[in-house]
Every structure is written in structure tokens, then in C-alpha cells.
Please model this.
Amino acid sequence: MQTRGAALRVEERTFLVDSAKRTVIDFRSQARMVNIGVEYGASIWCLLAGAPAAAIYAIDRSFSRLIGMPSVIRLEGRSQDSNIRRRVRSPLHLVFVDGSHEELDVRADAVNFDPKVITGGMLIFHDYHNPKEFARIAGVARGVDSWFEEAQSVWAELEAPGSIRAFHKV
Ligand SMILES: C[S@@+](CC[C@H](N)C(=O)[O-])C[C@H]1O[C@@H](n2cnc3c(N)ncnc32)[C@H](O)[C@@H]1O
Model:
């Protein structure tokens, strides 16, 4: 069964804007980011609000619901597919994962995009915890946990609001 996530809450939107700003401050050069799972575009607009000059790859199976015309590089398809991934240039400074909520897909997104993130960059997952909707998002928690178990020597966890789990590459 296909699982869906919850809408981004205000504090989560603020966190994304601040994370994008931090990326620009830390790296100075033009930041490069990926947003997996776009839907109406809330997370895209947050990243652009924090980093208006960033190169942002937006990956989704369909852009039919996207609101507005954000200045991003659209990659239509499954983020787990290698033909989508290979169009994303490295290094990346921030990756936001909010696409498929199935365990194996979330794990694949983490495992595949982790090596593309530069030291000091961020990997951020939405819908990791949400007590009210735990059954719907259990796949996200399991996918993130299984990646982090293997990757924790290179990633430090950041404090993050709501259903977000965020990591900083050390
Ligand atoms: C929860 S919504 C994203 C919400 C968005 N981040 C926001 O802030 O409003 C999930 C999106 O992921 C897309 N999606 C689902 N499975 C995917 C996959 N395997 N690869 C890429 N996108 C996927 C869906 O089409 C949907 O638009």
C-alpha cells in the first residue's frame, strides 16, 4: 500500500528555511540542493526562501500538483531510479527527503544521496515521527534507522522540530 506523508507544519517550514540559509552561510559558493517529493511545492518554496540563488533539483514522479513556477531543475521520475540520480551533480549541500514513504525507498534515497553530500552538508527527512499517524509513516522511520545504523560514524544528528530528523555530515 502506498503511504502518504503529512503537510509541512509551520515550525518545519521555518527549519527548512533556516537550514537553507545556513547552507549558504557555511559554503558561500552557490549552494546545490535536492528536494525529493515536491507535490504542491511547500518545501521547495522554503528552500528557495532561505537560498534564493541555490541550484535546486526537484525530484517527483509528477509535477502536476506543483503550485507556482519555482526556479528549480525538475527531474520527473522515481528518486530511486539511477537515470534520475545521475542527472544530479555533486557535491550537494542539502538533501530533503519527502518522496516515497516506503521503507526500502526511503533507505534507498538515504544510501544513494548520502555519498553526494559534502562534509558539512545536511540530510533531512520529513515524516520520521508523527505519533498520531505512526502507522502511515513507519516505513520512513525504519528506512532512516537502517541507513543511520550504518552511517552514524559520518553523520551527527541535529535538533529538529515536528516529524523531521536531520543530520549534518562530519
Ligand atoms: C508528501 S508529498 C511531498 C510534500 C512536499 N515535500 C511539501 O513540502 O509539500 C510526497 C511526494 O512524493 C512523490 N513521490 C512518491 N514516491 C516517489 C518516488 N519514489 N520518487 C519521487 N517522488 C515520489 C509524490 O508524487 C508526492 O508528490
Q: What stands out?
A: The helical segments are 10-27, 42-50, 82-85, 103-113, 134-151. The chain has one domain: 10-169. The longest helix spans residues 10-27.
